[in-house]
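hey so u asked for the seq, here:
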Amino acid sequence: MRSRYKIIEAPEGCNIIFATSTIVDWTPLLFKDDLLDIILQSLKFCQKEKGLEIYGYVIMPNHFHLLAGHKTRKAMPGIIRDMKKHTAKEIIKYLKGLGTYGEMPWIRPFHAEKPSMVWQPGYHPQAVFSQPVFSEKLKYIHGNPVKQGFVERPEHWKYSSARNYILDDHSLVVLDTERL
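ran it, structure tokens below
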């Protein structure tokens, strides 16, 4: 069975990708630090246990961007698939723990048993094959919270590698420093 998660336009030897994963219907489901932390902890697990190399990231309320790689290009689809499956289960468990919907009726659909109901299929991988492309994608990632109006400066968004690059703050994720 072929995976729908496949890296496209990747030249031989290019093991870094820019990836985006989005919550179904762009719902701002990651509305609490606990939910954002689920994504963060999964990234750290994949980094430590599966060899994921993280060069940049941002976790937003309805999606995340990742600039990442692996020594073996073929490993990336499985890592992303497993990460999304795990985070979907944890997000659903967390939402169920909230009990009633109260003032958040928009989370009702996410109380489903199927983890596939959290993330849209795929992760839109783009090969990062040069330093200029790497820099462009990193700038895009870091600018996302500013563009959305959440913060005035990229390093003010807690769930972004901008804090690593600008503030030398590696408290959430230690980035891999070898690039291209």
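The CA atoms of residues 44 and 173 lie 7 Å apart. The chain has a mean pLDDT of 85.
lmk if thats what u needed
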